[in-house]
Amino acid sequence: MAMPNNLLLVRHGESEGNPILKALHENRRPPDAEILDKVDTSLWRLTALGVRQARTTGAWLRDQPWARFDLYLCSDYVRARETAAELNLPDAKWRVEFYLRERDRGRESALLTKEELERRFPGSREQKARHAFYWRPEDGESIADLCQRVNRVLDTLWRDNDSHNVIVVCHEEVMWAFRMRLEKLAPEDYLKLDQDEALKVHNCQVWHYTRLDPETGRQAVHFTHRATYDPVEPRRSRWEPIHRPRYSNKDLLKGLPPRTLKS
């Protein structure tokens, strides 16, 4: 058993909620917020821009000689299903997987401004400030919870898809959960990476994991390299080797916080 030769993770195109959420984070309330707030977030459609983004990424994928897939997976949320369809990949037969759904933010999924969220859920904000990786929005999921969902998908890929190429259309935080598990990152790594705006996953951005060395073609059991592509706004892409950390006894004791209680 082994992982697929290539695993591509694609974020959905711009949804109806994306521009509204951006405005709310800036403490602006667009007129359409009240309308969209009456619709479950799983039902948000792509905007016209989101459709164009998906078609652009699909055209880019069709031009890549390695982008031929044996398994097609997408989140059950409408914006992911719509993105998958608009990629227009030849002979695609998509499997809809609810384990790939967006992170559940529970009561905090209401379309509120940043100030309203802080005022309405003060305890939740305090918990997030303590440790964002383990923080659960009220009645929602933490990133740690999300990683457990992603593990279910990875277990299936490990068992059933040796030597195959797989494409997954999902959501930004789901992609981060994949990265946490595939690269064996620690929670403190997530806290650092989450603060880096340059690492934000843009709509229809692609992460490509491979277990075939890009230079030698040598095959490994686990993924050894990752590349990032942005077909919508092309940037210089490059392969990065994956270094899964290992810790000595001394390493485990580095950087520990001071003791809370005096003994």
Written description of the protein model:
Helices cover 37% and strands 13% of the residues. The chain has one domain: Rossmann fold (3-Layer(aba) Sandwich), CATH 3.40.50.1240. It has a 7-stranded mixed beta sheet. α7 (143-160) packs across α8 (172-182). The protein is built from 10 helices and 7 strands.
Order of helices and strands: EHHHEHEHHHEHHEEEH
CATH superfamily: Phosphoglycerate mutase-like
C-alpha Rg (nearest Å):
19 Å
What is the total tally of β strands?
Answer: 7
Mean pLDDT: 93
CATH architecture: 3-Layer(aba) Sandwich
Portion of residues in helices? 25-40%
Number of discrete domains: 1
| Main sheet specs | 7 strands, mixed
Q: Keywords, please?
A:
263 residues, alpha/beta, seven-stranded mixed β-sheet, 10 helices, 37% helix, 13% strand, globular
